[in-house]
Amino acid sequence: MNNKKLLKEAVLTLGRYSPNHIKVFNTLVDHAIDDKVFLPVKDIQNISNMKRSSVYFALNSFQKDGILIKDKTQMGAFVFQKEKVDFLIATYKTKQKLSV
Known about the structure:
Blueprint: H1 4-14, H2 19-31, E1 36-38, H3 41-48, H4 52-64, E2 68-70, E3 77-80, H5 82-99
Antiparallel strand pairs: 1-3, 2-3
Helix pairs in contact: 1-2, 1-5, 2-3, 2-4
């Protein structure tokens, strides 16, 4: 993941996700290495200070939207979908250019 800050801004400005979703997303992005993050739900819960059910709800939303998939080879691991991440960043950059 090349530009974590830009990705966080892109997802935040979508206006699609709740503050709890954003907390979970930012936690995942902060801990990602090469588009992969190994962070069990309990750790996400502790880092973001959220209820377990809220963490699961956010993770399911990101999976449904195609931003994340579960890594079937490693329990507690998620992979950011590069195509979707690139699309979100490109859309954000385009909106930034248009607003100037």
